[in-house]
Amino acid sequence: MKSKILILLLLLNITLVFSQREAAIWYFGQYAGLDFNSGIPVPLTGSLNTIEGCASISDVQGKLLFYTDGSTVWNANNTIMQNGTGLLGHTSSTQSAIIVPNPNIPSIYYIFTVDQPDEKNADDTTINDTDDGSIDGLNYSEVNMNLNGGLGGINPLKKNVHLITYNQNHSNEVAFKCSEKITAIQHADGNSFWVITNFTNRFYAFRVDYNGVNSTPVISSTPTDIQTGGYLRNAIGYLKSSPNGKKLAIAHYSSRKNNERTPKTNLLVWNTGKVLLYDFDNATGKVSNENLLIGGVNPYGIEFSSKSKKLYVTDNHFDSSSKLIGSSLYQFDLTANNIATSKVLIVKNDNSAGALQLAIDSKIYRAGYPYGGSSDHLSVINKPEEKGTACDFEYNKINIGGKKATLGLPPFIQSLFLFNFKYEFTCFGDYTHFYITTLEPIDSVLWDFGDGTTSTDFDTTHQYSAPGTYTVTLTKTIDGEASDPLSKDVIIREKPEILDSTYELSQCDSYDNNQNDGLATFNLNSAIDDLTLHKQDDYLVYFYLNETDAENDIYNQHPLPTTYTNTTPDQIVFAKIMYKDSDCYSLGKLKLTAVVSSLLETDDLVGCETNDNMGEFDLDKKTTDIKTSLSLPSTVEISYYETKTDAINETNPLNSDYISSEKTIYFKASNKGVCYGSGTFDLKINYFPLVPFDDTLNICENDFPVTINAPIPFNQKDNYTYYWSNGSSTYSITLPTQETVSVTITDKLYNCEKLVTFDVKKVSPPIVTNVDINIDDSIIIINTNLNNDNLYALDNPFSEFQSENVFTNVSPGTHTIYLKNKFNCGVTSKLIFVLGFPKFFTPNNDGINDVWEIKGLNFSDFTYSNINIFNRYGKHLVSIDPHLNWDGFYNGKRLDSDDYWFSIDVTDSNNITKTYKGHFSLLRK
Question: pTM, whole model, 2 decimals?
C-alpha cells in the first residue's frame, strides 16, 4: 500500500506545489478579469458587473472554479452556477464575498457574503446608494464542485446560512447586522481557517474546519466603537489579515455618530475615518492591541505585503462642496518601533481610493478611477517590500483589455500569499510527504524533520521511526539570504485501533416487494460505534465497496451513501476509519446481513384529539397490544418511525407519547438485537363530533333560569359521559343566574376527554339615559346605560330598527324612541320633545311670516316656561307665553332687522327640566 501511495504522491507533486494558484484568476469591475498563471497579468472577460465587492477561486493548478459578486455565482464557463442566484451579499458592499474551502473535502467551498447596511437618509453621491430593501448581514453558502458535471452548484440545504455578528438585544445592531468587511486566514494548525469580520466595537472570528463552518465565533472587543448612527458610510472600507496570520488592519471610511453635516452648507462631514492595526492570534482567533495608524481621513483600501512587513492604505480627498478630488496612497513599515510615524506618502493623484490586492506574483494591484469617469487600467506596486517610494508604484500600468475597473478587487485567503509548506500521510509507517506552497524563485531549502534528520529537496518524504509530535522546520534561501525558519508541529499517529474482526450488520428483510431475498437497505452509520470500539466521536468514517476504492479515494470524495442497499446477500463492505485531524486511517470490514423476518400486522391506533386538531397517541399501549395480539415473546422490543427511511436506518425513533396528524407509522420488532419482524399501521384521530357552539352565552335576564346542553349531537349523547364544574353529570344543566361553567366530555369507547367552557352572561334591556337634541339641525342623539350593539327606532316599534343611535331631520313635536339590544331582551321606550321654531320672520302685515312662534309644543306631556327674547348683545327684551307669539315689537316700538336669541325651559313627566336656546332673524322689507 505504501508503494502505491508514493507513486500517486509523485504524480500529484506537479500540482500540489502550486497551491498559490488558487488566487491566480481574478474577476472584478465591469466584466473585467486578470489571469496570473503565466507570470504576468493577462486580461480576461467575465460576466459580473460590480461596483465594489467580488471574489473568485481557482484550483491548485490555477484553473478557474467560480466567482461571485456576492449575489450571483458564475462557474468556469462564465455562466450562472446551478442554484447560483439569490445570495445575500451586495454589489456595493466593500467586500461582498470571500471564498474558503473545506479543509478536508476538496470539492466543498464556502462563500461568505456581507450585505450593504441600509441608511435611508444618506446622500453621499460619491458612493453608490443602491439598496435592496433588506439588511441580511453575514451569511454563507456551500458550493459542491461535484454537482452539474463538475461545474459546481450551491447546496440548497446550506444556502444563505445566517451567522450572528451583532447584539441581538440591541435594536440598532439588529437593524444593521454587520459591516462591509471580511477577511480570511489560515489557522495556526495549518489546516483549518479563520473567517473574520468587524462590527461596532467587536471582531468576530468563525472557524472553518473539517466539520464545515462553526457558527459560534470567537469575539474580541476593541476600544474603538464605530457607531451605527451613520453606518452606511461607517461600514465602508477593507479589512485584511497579514499573510503570516499575526496582524489585522482595518479601514473605517468614517466614524460618524450620525449623518453629520456642516451647519452652513448642509453637506456631509468628511475626514472622520481611521486606519487601525491589531494583533491577531491565529491559534485562538483573538484580536488585541489596537494601534491607531492614521485618523481624520477617508480610507478605503488596505493590503499587506507578502512578507507581512509593509502595509498600504488608500485614502480619498474631498473639497468643501463634498466633491471627490482624488486620493493618496500611503505605506507603513510594520517593522518600525513606531508604526504610525513610519507613514510615507507614495503617490497622490486624481483617482478614487480603490481596493488594494496582493497577487501571486507578490505585487500589489490598485483599483480606482477619476471622479465622474472610469478606468480601463489598474495601478501596481511592483516591489511592496521596499521602503517608501522605492516600492516602485506605477499609475494605470496594467491594461485590463478595454473593460472597466471600479472600486473593488477580489480578496483571497491571505495565507495563500505566504511562503508555506504542507504535509500529508501521517500514519506511523507511512512516508510523510512535505511540499512547499509558493511561487517565489527559491535558491535552496533546508528541511529539519524534528527527529535529527534533514533534507535539501524541495519536495521530500520522510519516514518517522516512532509515533509522536515532531516540530518540522523549513528554511529557504533567496539570493543568498536565508529566511526566518518556518515551523509546524506534525503529529505522527498509530493507525486507529478498530474492531479487528468483521462486524455483522443486520437488517430486517422486509419493507420491500421481494422479502427474504437476502437484500435490504442498511444504515451503515449504525455500525460505526462497534467498528471504532465505541469511540466514534474521535473519527471520521467512510464506506467503500472494496479495499482498493478506499485507498485510492485519497480525499474521500466518492464513498458509498450511508443508506445503502446491498447487491448480494451477506455482502462485505469496507469502512475507512480516520482521525478527524489527520489523514491516518485503518480499514474495517462489515457484513450486510438481511435477516429473514416476518411481516407483522396490527390494528390501527386511535388517538384522542387535541385542541389543535392533532391526535395524542400512546405508543407504549400500542406495544402491549402488538405483543398480546401477535403472542410475541416478552423480550421483543418494538420501535416506531415516521418514515420508511427512518425505520430502515433506525433513526429518529418516536417517543411513547406522540402527537401527530393522521398518518402511516412504521414499526420494527427485534429480539435481543436480532430482527424479528416489521410492519405498518395507521394513526386515526378520534374526533369529537362537537356541534357549533358559542363559548359566551348572552341570556336575557327574564329568561333565567336557563338550560344549556353539552355540545354533542343529541342522537350521540349516550356515547359520552359528562361532568360539569358545578357537580352535575347530565347532558343538560339548568343555571339560575349568570356564571362561568365547564363540562368535561368523555368518550366511552376510547376514554378521550374534551373540556368545554361556557361563559353565561345575564343581559338586561338597555335604558335611555339621555337624549341630545340639536334644535338647529333637527338631530337627536340617544345615549344608553348599556352597549350591547343596541338597535333603535323612532315612533314606530314595528318598523325596522337601525344600529345607529342618531336620527336626522326630525320634525318638531313629541316623539317616542324605541330601544332594544341585539339579543331581543325586550323593548324600552322614551317620550321626547323636539323643539321647532322658524329661523326668521318678516312682520310686514302681508300675512306671511308676520310673527315668530315655537311650534310643536305638547302641553299634555310637557310643561313649558315663558319664552325669553334677547337681542344680539344679550339684553332681555320680552317674555312671551308659550301659547302666544311675538310680532317684533319692544315697549311698543318696532325693532329693526337683526339677529335675536331665545330660551325656553321644558319639563317632562319625570320632572326633568332641560333648557333650549336658539337664535333667529327679524327681517324688515
Answer: 0.59
